[in-house]
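In line with agreed milestones, the collection of sequences with tokenised folds has grown. One record among many is set out beneath this paragraph:
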Amino acid sequence: MRKLEGKVALVSGSGRGIGRAIALKLAGEGARVVINDLDPEPARETVGEIRTSGGEAVSCEGSVTAEGFADRFVNTAIESFGGIDIIVNTAGYTWDNVIQKMTDDQWQAMLDVHLTAPFRILRAAAGFIRAAARKEAQEGREVFRKVVNISSVAGLGGNAGQVNYSAAKAGLSGLTQSLCKEWGRYKVNVNCVAFGLIQTRLTQPLTGGEARIQVEGREINVGIQPAFLKAMEEQLIPLGRAGTPGEAADAVYLFCSPESNYISGQTVVCGGGLKW
């Protein structure tokens, strides 16, 4: 029997990259998944892939920072699958600059997507989780639920050019530890995975000029110079290479599985030994 059979998982930012890999991993272990992406097409593609493989999934499209999104996301899980067992806060992107050139908009955008959006989603889920936990306790059943927040080594040790992103990810660690203490009584394990260098469109090698992504009408520069990538892999990562989205998803799955029922309030680095 698959370890997440019958569980319901919400995964934000799961139309592409790491989020998509997480959704596919959880679905492969039996979870029914609510897929989210800013853009409809990648969200629907991920839903289609899960269904083609025999799993169950629905989409809840739109920006995690939008007013009312958190309630809509949580209600999609309850209305479609009857509950909530796992919440993975993955949605996000980077918008880099050195501090003297960083605008208020750049600063706030990173706080909104990486810290405020997870807070709102978790707050929206609180009513269901508290009620379900009390009912299960009255019935003499111990049911564990899982929250996994996605951070970065930048949130642990900082990164030049990313004061906004690093600050937001550091705040997510504090949210994780505080919620662990609030929700322990409800049998919720709240943990964090901090990624190092993972192969995504945000970390693609810049081999032909600048690379950009579109985020809510903004053009955001992404990618890393090949020489810097090579130096990281050869000098800073003991395992000698960047991680794959699938390997990133495996780290998140550890905190979604029953084996993590007595682990909470922790941040684990998935970075091939990368030190920050």
About this structure: The chain has one domain: 8-196+245-270. The domain at 8-196+245-270 is CATH 3.40.50.720 (Rossmann fold). The longest helix spans residues 104-138.
